[in-house]
Known about the structure:
Elements: H1 6-15, H2 23-32, E1 41-48, E2 60-64, E3 75-78, H3 81-90, E4 94-96, H4 98-105, E5 113-116, H5 121-125, H6 128-131, H7 149-157, E6 160-164, E7 170-177, H8 182-198, E8 209-216, E9 221-224, H9 226-230
Amino acid sequence: MGKTGKRVKVAREAFAGKENLTVEDAVGLIKSNASAGFDESVEIAMNLGVDPRHADQMVRGVVTLPNGTGKTVRVAVFARGAKADEARVAGADIVGAEDLMETVQGGTIAFDRCIATPDMMPIIGRLGKVLGPRNLMPNPRIGTVTSDVKDAVGAAKGGQVQFKTEKGGVVHAGIGKTRFESDKLVANVRAFVDAVSKARPTGAKGTYVRKVSLSSTMGPGVSVSVESATGN
């Protein structure tokens, strides 16, 4: 078994015995122990009382974080003609139609968010097996299939975060960077939790939000009081 590094050991000791903290205390703990040699992301994980294997218990949505994510998001847009031009002006990194489809089918996916105009859905439909598992499939329910290309690209670039339940009913996302001021991270956490709470599916029974945890990219996780996270 490999040795535990000094940085990791110190962080674990700082987190030992601490749980069910307020959002403010959890953010402060994470920021004070983020000692990796790069600007770590702050990540949230929510354990929900749902079984995503059932359609009426799937949780999916989108939220625009008030203070952004701190990440550069590469956006691809499937569009033609004037809408393709609109996407480029709005700042899309990649724009195309059949040519972009062929690129993706060839295994090159150089983007973090995918947007499509409605007329592109026959093309997008062929990419389900490639984009679906990566949570990149455009979907009208979360605004990534739209004729309003300008606003969609702007939102994707400006701090919009998509979420979807994974195996075990967990929702996970990055909600900022450790360089952010504490109050900005706290606001982002509560905005994300609020969006997930409002996305409660009809099939969810009993306790919906069971646990909320925060961590940095290279640091330990810490549980957060559900009451504090939801603002109750």
